[in-house]
Design brief:
α2 (34-44) packs across α3 (46-64) and α6 (140-148) crosses α7. This protein has a three-stranded antiparallel beta sheet with strand order 1-3-2, with helices on both faces. The protein has helices at residues 2-18, 34-44, 46-64, 82-94, 115-129, 140-148, 161-171, 173-176, 202-209; strands spanning 98-105, 134-138, 186-193. It is built from nine helices and three strands. The protein is mainly alpha-helical. Helix content is 51%, strand content 10%. It is elongated and about 90 Å long.
Length: 210
């Protein structure tokens, strides 16, 4: 939307606003500079500019074919650069900058409320927690674990997973919808990977999940 408004203002509004204005007298600059040189190139050699532009486009398209799942943004920066240090701070203090979303689906309505379905969520979460390159991991199991930390005084034993899930449905349903659909047929696990980890191999991580 922002780009559309910007282009509309540039190509529609500004020309319409400038047209009724009185033309001002212009004097030629006394010295030539790099901007004047650049402005003269498309006027004198338009075909060369077009050929060069298409060449750059071709190289860019070829470059995109070299991207794969192991391409890391941080590899384009030196370790002493601010960008690298910022990403490293996010890795070590904030759980990692690279998001990974795992979707678990079932044909059975309400499946992820059952002990078997909840065990599938917990198994996937525990797998990611065992991967050294994993930062922050969140899922419905995370919410359940938080609820289980604070059992009521009248209950002598800690809540089971199913009891905690029932409490979440009653008092924090909106939070559950961040991770599960209303029919509990689809659940997601939100994972953040540590971009600066030298041993990060996404294919190995995904193969382990399968």
């Amino acid at each position: 939307v922002g780009m559309a408004l910007g282009l509309a203002a540039t190509f529609l509004f500004l020309p319409s606003a400038v047209r009724p204005l009185r033309a001002l007298a212009a004097t030629a600059p006394s010295r030539k500079g790099p901007l004047h040189l650049l402005a003269g190139i498309p006027l004198r050699l338009p075909k060369l500019v077009l050929l060069g532009s298409f060449a750059i486009l071709g190289v860019s398209i070829w470059g995109t074919t070299k991207l794969d799942v192991e391409t890391k943004f941080i590899d384009y920066f030196r370790e002493d650069s601010e960008v690298y240090q910022g990403l490293e701070y996010i890795d070590t203090r904030m759980g990692g900058p690279t998001p990974l979303e795992v979707m678990l689906r079932s044909d059975q309505p309400g499946y992820f409320k059952t002990p078997e379905g909840f065990a599938a969520i917990r198994a996937a979460q525990e797998y990611f927690q065992s991967v050294p390159e994993t930062g922050n991991v969140r899922s419905m199991a995370t919410l359940v674990d938080e609820i289980r930390k604070f059992p009521p005084r009248w209950k002598q034993k800690a809540w089971t997973d199913q009891e905690a899930l029932t409490r979440l449905q009653a008092f924090a349903r909106e939070m559950l919808l961040d991770f599960c659909t209303k029919d509990f047929q689809t659940c997601r696990i939100l994972v953040r990977m540590k971009e600066t980890a030298p041993t990060l191999n996404r294919k190995r991580v995904l193969d382990g999940l399968h």
